[in-house]
Design goal:
Blueprint: H1 4-20, E1 29-30, E2 49-53, E3 64-68, H2 79-91, E4 95-100, H3 112-126, E5 138-143, H4 145-153, E6 180-183, H5 196-203, H6 209-214, E7 228-233, H7 242-253, E8 258-263, H8 282-292
Length: about 300
């Protein structure tokens, strides 16, 4: 006969296994229905999701943004670089979608995260009429390694990642974001500039030089790269500010509209925390930039 303690343990473990297979949010939308291209299983780590956050109808504009949380391509900072950001965007009328992309650390190296980001943009564009979104006002935002993913979406759209298996109508749409907002982003994969953990997770411990060059997004800017808003702190000890500086220089050289804010203090990973000091002003600056660029009224 099983003891009560053993029975409780079995029930607890069973509940943990069951709950681990549920989406992180009850409103989460799978990027693909049915079989997910390139996935190894059907666990939570195998199914990329979009978590929508809608503004109040009376405040809604026709602008939308896909948010890529950071985490070094090893985990997702879903709260302070995801949910909190989406909720703030809702206050200024922007429909926001937090992207839970597949992670290299969980068996999905490049180009799978980029495939997920491109699919997310296409999915929002496909359902734009349903969600009262202008299909020409869909941007992407990223923090830290999520900034590398977002900047990849903004520089690699002319040669989208090939989707294995059967494609659908969504895959026929453009995956180019209409604007980018990059907050303390990883941009480069080159030694001395990159965040080594993000590079190792995404490209492996000894990536080929041509792959390093390809995924160093400051090298991939063209005049077709979307307008970009950049934020970084000069005292960032995790992702050097050189990432944002070089990306801005490339945008400027290509005559792409861009705005860059480098704060003296703030460190890394500050999100919207008031403790970041003056760097915490970036959301208001971002709103003003979106208005200047005519993405917001």
């Amino acid at each position: 006969m099983k003891t009560p303690a053993l029975i409780l343990t079995v029930l607890f473990l069973s509940c943990c296994v069951w709950s681990a297979e549920l989406p992180s949010d009850p409103n989460a939308i799978p990027l693909w229905t049915g079989v997910v291209p390139g996935s190894h299983g059907i666990g939570p780590e195998d199914i990329p999701l979009l978590i929508p956050h809608f503004p109040e109808p009376s405040q809604a504009s026709d602008c939308a943004i896909v948010i890529c949380p950071g985490g070094g391509y090893g985990h997702h900072a879903m709260d302070h670089e995801g949910k909190q950001i989406a909720q703030w965007f809702n206050t200024i009328g922007v429909t926001a979608f937090v992207l839970q992309y597949r992670l290299p650390k969980q068996g999905y190296p490049h180009p799978v995260p980029l495939m997920d980001a491109q699919r997310a943009l296409r999915l929002v564009r496909y359902r734009a009429a349903e969600w009262k979104i202008n299909p020409d006002k869909i941007g992407i935002m990223g923090f830290s390694a999520g900034g590398h993913l977002a900047s990849s979406a903004g520089t690699h759209f002319e040669k989208p990642v090939a989707v294995p298996g059967i494609t659908d109508e969504i895959d026929t749409l453009s995956c180019r974001p209409d604007f980018m907002a990059l907050i303390y982003p990883v941009i480069s994969m080159h030694e001395g500039i990159t965040h080594r953990g993000s590079r190792k997770n995404l490209l492996g411990p000894e990536p080929a030089s041509d792959l390093v060059e390809l995924m160093s997004n400051e090298k991939q800017v063209t005049p077709q790269t979307p307008p970009t808003f950049l934020v970084h702190a000069d005292d960032d000890k995790v992702v050097t500010v050189e990432n944002s500086i070089r990306f801005y220089q490339a945008l400027h050289q290509a005559q792409v509209p861009a705005e860059k804010h480098i704060f003296l203090h703030g460190g890394h990973g500050f999100g919207m925390r008031p403790t970041a000091g003056p760097a915490a002003q970036w959301p208001k600056l971002c709103q003003q930039w979106l208005q200047q660029m005519k993405f917001l009224p």
